[in-house]
UniProtKB/TrEMBL annotation:
It comes from Chlorella vulgaris. One of its GO terms (cellular component) is membrane. This is Uncharacterized protein. Belongs to the WrbA family. It comes from the Eukaryota. Gene3D superfamilies: 3.40.50.360. InterPro entries: Flavoprotein-like_sf (IPR029039). One of its GO terms (molecular function) is NAD(P)H dehydrogenase (quinone) activity.
Length: 77
């Protein structure tokens, strides 16, 4: 997150998905990455942990969310 301020200083548009995924973000039934800042995953020190289905779902959601914002920005030109 420290890099975000530097990148935005140079013109990057940061599009965090916020809490737009809904209830899956708040589920406590398993260890998972992801926050209102964006998708992430927990990695095991020995590389034994795979990306969970919820983490994968959130990453896909973030990609679609970002694409929707880009599409709306492109339509304003």
């Amino acid at each position: 997150m420290t890099a975000v301020t530097q990148f935005t200083h140079h013109g990057m548009i940061f599009v965090p998905p916020g809490y737009s995924l809904g209830a899956d973000m708040f589920a406590l039934d398993e260890v998972k990455g992801g926050s209102s800042w964006g998708a992430s995953t927990f990695a095991g020190g020995d590389n034994s942990r795979e990306v969970s289905e919820k983490e994968r779902k959130y990453a896909l959601h973030q990609g679609r969310y970002f694409a929707g914002v880009v599409k709306r920005l492109a339509a304003t030109k």
